[in-house]
Amino acid sequence: MSTESFLTDFHQVAAIGATPAGGVERQAATPEDKQLRDWFTAFAAERGWPVRVDSIGNLFALVEWRPGADYVLVGSHLDSQPLGGRFDGAYGVIAALHAADRLAARVARGEPPKYNLAVVDWFNEEGSRFAPSIMGSSVFAGLMDEQEMLRVTDSDGITVAEALEAIGYRGTDERPKPAAYAEIHIEQGPVLEREGIALGAVDRSWYTQKLDVEVLGEQSHTGATAMADRRDALVAASKVVVLVHDVTADFEPESIVSSVGYLTLEPNSPIVVPRRVHLVADIRANAPEIVQQARALLLERIAAVAREHDLTIDVRDFDVRPVQHFPEQGLEIAEKVAADLGAGIRRINTMAGHDSVAMNRIVPALMLFIPSVDGVSHCEREFTSDDQMAIGVDALTEATWELLQGELEAQR
Amino acid sequence: MSTESFLTDFHQVAAIGATPAGGVERQAATPEDKQLRDWFTAFAAERGWPVRVDSIGNLFALVEWRPGADYVLVGSHLDSQPLGGRFDGAYGVIAALHAADRLAARVARGEPPKYNLAVVDWFNEEGSRFAPSIMGSSVFAGLMDEQEMLRVTDSDGITVAEALEAIGYRGTDERPKPAAYAEIHIEQGPVLEREGIALGAVDRSWYTQKLDVEVLGEQSHTGATAMADRRDALVAASKVVVLVHDVTADFEPESIVSSVGYLTLEPNSPIVVPRRVHLVADIRANAPEIVQQARALLLERIAAVAREHDLTIDVRDFDVRPVQHFPEQGLEIAEKVAADLGAGIRRINTMAGHDSVAMNRIVPALMLFIPSVDGVSHCEREFTSDDQMAIGVDALTEATWELLQGELEAQR
After folding, report:
1. Residues of chain A contacting B206 with CB distance shorter than 8 Å
2. Which residues of B are annotated as a binding site for Zn(2+)?
3. CATH architecture for segment(s) B3-206+323-404
4. Fewest Cβ atoms nearer than 10 Å: which of A20, A254, A309, B178?
5. Does ipTM top 0.90?
6. What is the pLDDT of residues A199-238, one digit of tens each?
């Protein structure tokens, strides 16, 4: 398949769930997510590839040359953030489908490779409708409990199980047995663009953790209660938000990110001083020590805020994700492929979580990045050019070819 | 009726919508609000008093001695904040019903007064489910548009009109024509308790206004976007919350209150830097100049936050409520009644809004306070003792008797 046919498909898919400002909104297991899955299924059906859906909604298109052999899995996710960008996730799945199509044509003219191929759309990578993120691949890899995840609810009380049934993608099919995994994704950061390099070979993920923070003050009347008599949960929580942001200034630039994306207050009435605020802080750094130092500084500073405002602030660690190293063999494959294509490549960390990080826990994984204009993501102005995307599809195709030959194996 | 029968009724009503921590939750036009209204209606029916419901859900029990004469209105509101106290509002309505019962017995033994009497439960004083607050009395007084208010929705999209119909309290009855208004309420502040005085005669309301603040940043990935590339709407909004709180320190203690009770963010996903925050600040002071100075300081400081974070912060004034003076004649009536009862009384400002402030725009109004333990309100530990409540019922009864004789009239 040509670059043109890839670009045609990519831009057609980007019209599904499109927003006026150039982004997309297709959160997990919504009607828009179903439309993308139907498109994926039709792509496979046109080529005679069997499709499987597992019990957490992961979707696989199988390209089989050796009955009974294991599979090289290649893919990413089709779901998006609310008002998200059109590249995050979808690019990697569409690139994987086109890589598979090119490789199927190549095999038809020669010897079958060692492994079969499966293109995958992982369920709910984004975690915006159903927390936590990276759900489908983590269940696949045995890192999260499937029954527990099926019971997770969205803000309307709908469970993952109900939402998957509603769109017809709660399957019962056997999962393809993986031998290795490959994924391509936009960088979502500024490094490749700044250095003018076409490809990144991801060498490791950042250390990440979340803090679940509950601020318990006292509800009172915004008009009638004197300032000295108040224990305002929102004022204290606001200081926590600023502390979470400002702690990054204690470290080297670009070595750490930290922010609060989720916050709710009760009772949230314009004339009532809030009694309770619940917020989630997300801290990530390129070394565990940095996250741990930032966490210790925050705990100390948050305790001071609680004392100052005479209220309770409970802080709980969760979703701790250690640094994952991607195998050296995969990095070398990526570098060889880039050299053959005449494309620049560098090794790079990923600050964001990815399905590849979960898969790398059970099979050797290879992850490629292409540049993000201005380094932005999870927003409508996320952008990568057609030329940059085309190089990525070529690189993913050749890297997958190497994996199909058994060049990236656990025992090496 | 005796003090005992008042206290029995008060504590029975406090059990409706009771919360485990000793408060109540009966927001406007909920099933709990309906239960209180049904209790009010039954109280009137037992005494043969006709009940009227107007088209914004205000509920009136009429005690008529002179067909065709105007009415002295006496009452407050039965709705509460979420997890509110059992005294705020309900005390004033139950006190008014008992005052009416005592006066009906007094008139049965003597000459009818100049005016008829109507006890009123104003719809939606709290404004927590349907904004703005003080809705029923403001529509009655012609200060808010009835059709507009009927279209106001709660967070589930239910309109005031639908909610009133659902509980069977959207009426079509003619409104009683008012000659004067009386109300008793808990202070919701610390003054009476601190000074050990049984009664407050409200001489004026505070100047109040709200600021509607919208912070517009840019949505991005909490993990992958470098700190320098972010325009985080929540960090900027948190600084605004702290500024709104801290501006009070620029003025005399207890001359001003200022806070944010309402805040929402979008998209509110743990791994997305927020793009938009909407919040409402509430500023009140005992003089207009203080609110205006605080507002000017805030506008300047908020603009600096917008510049610092390279984002847009729009601030809009709304719900400006000028200082209202209660008539001198009413204060003198309150002082005479207290002296006759041997109870202490002082003149006092109200920091909170009340139905009496709206009614005072169209007829002369008299408002009494009784103490609030610790000065707290809009919370479950709101408290006033039985003895303090009993003095208030006696004072309201005698003050209403004066009003029924025409002692507080517009033309005086």
Report:
1. 223
2. 77, 88, 126, 185, 378
3. 3-Layer(aba) Sandwich (3.40)
4. A20
5. no
6. 999 999 999 999 999 999 998 888 778 898 889 999 999 9
> What is the residue extent of each domain of chain A?
3-206+323-404, 207-321
Interface check B133 vs A, CB under 8 A: yes
Q: Closest to A220 (Cβ–Cβ): which among B273, B275, B378?
A: B378
Q: Which residue among A257, A268, A380 places its CB closest to the CB of B223?
A: A257
pLDDT by residue (tens digit) across B244-297? 999 999 999 889 999 999 999 998 988 889 999 999 999 999 999 999 999 999
Helix ranges (H only) for A109-253 are: 135-140, 146-150, 160-166, 191-195, 233-246
B5 close to A (CB below 8 A): no
Using the Cβ of A210 and the Cβ atoms of chain B, whether some distance falls under 8 Å is answered with: yes
pLDDT tens digits, B48-80: 999 999 999 999 999 999 999 999 999 999 999
> Which of B21, B347, B384, B358 shows the shortest CA–CA distance to B199?
B347
Same fold flag, B3-206+323-404 and B207-321: no
